[in-house]
Amino acid sequence: xxxxxxxxxxxxTPIRVGIIGCGGMGSWHAGNVAAQPxxxxxxxxxxxxxxxxAVATRFGARVDEPDAVAxxxxxxxxxxxxxxDSHARYAVPAIADGKGCLLEKPLxxxxxxxxxxxxxxxxxxxxxxxxxxxxxxxxxxxxVAAHLAELGPVTSIRGVHRNLDPSLRPVEMLITxxxxxxxxxxxxxxxxxxxxxxxxxxxxxxxxxxxxxxCTIASGAVATLAFEDQAFGYEVQVEVTAEGGMAATLPHPxxxxxxxxxxxxxxxxxxxxxxxxxxxLEVEAWAADLSAGVATGPSVWDGYAAQAVADAALxxxxxxxxxxxxxxxxxxxxxxx
Length: 337
Ligand code: ISE
Prior knowledge:
Blueprint: E1 15-20, H1 24-34, E2 39-45, H2 49-59, E3 62-63, H3 66-71, E4 77-80, H4 87-96, E5 100-103, H5 111-124, E6 129-131, H6 139-151, E7 154-162, H7 171-190, E8 194-203, E9 209-217, E10 222-228, E11 235-242, E12 245-248, E13 256-259, E14 262-265, H8 271-274, H9 276-292, H10 300-319, E15 323-324
Parallel strand pairs: 1-2, 1-4, 2-3, 4-5, 5-6, 7-10
Antiparallel strand pairs: 7-11, 8-9, 8-15, 9-10, 11-12, 13-14
Helix pairs in contact: 1-9, 4-5, 5-10, 7-10
The protein binds (2R,3S,4s,5R,6S)-2,3,4,5,6-pentahydroxycyclohexanone.
Residues 163, 177-178, 181, 271 line the site of (2R,3S,4s,5R,6S)-2,3,4,5,6-pentahydroxycyclohexanone.
């Protein structure tokens, strides 16, 4: 990204990619990066050395320290898939160094971390980050967006997001790590900001949690976003009503099985299966970004605006009231005035 090559990726020297954070998501992205003819994995870093070693061995890369990879001279671009609260630590120097970044969502665990990344990219004066809101690449979500373009203004959105997660996460993480996707989906499909949010948290007797967000949207529409942790499987659905009709993703985009008197649709266990195509298409789009020298797709501003909604939702969990979402003016870099 730093030299804005603008050449055909297949003919060019491969762009050298460092993977910062080699857990489940980082190693998944590494596989997609290695499959791109224009990209090559040259460095792998993780605070858990064995995780970095596994990725390095698989792709013939070197193991390095995460802080070093973010600014290494022989790394052109980075995938940042470390823990949420460390995204700013690696993204800020990588941006200052002119590296293209595929940065996992969210921008951070806190608004202060989101602020740091926004300030860094605004200071750089150009978009370097593609943020990992990969539902924008999911074929089912893309079809919903295409239908909505013909159905007129959106009046309401319902999102359902279920995880089958063995660990019990605090409500803060359910909102900043999981519901943040659904918050982004609302902004993306309506093209409008969320003005205010109410939150309802349901604890079950075994400690599992459901979180329901009710969002008012600047366009006048309303969104209800339901997240269920430790559910029966992994599912993400969105249903949108518009003035001219409705569009929805189907719950199970996989094959049906029929045997004597039984028809079965398999429910997946995690996001790697449900969003396999989206993650592959995301890295393909990122490779095109890197060879063109410009970042496209979900932006740092998208991450910032979604984080502001998550932040207001956390206030709403405690207050029980409708909480306003406050956003600074959108910087010119992201289409603001
Ligand atoms: C995870 O980080 C993801 O991005 C998944 O898409 C989401 O379903 C899950 O809740 C998150 O923890």
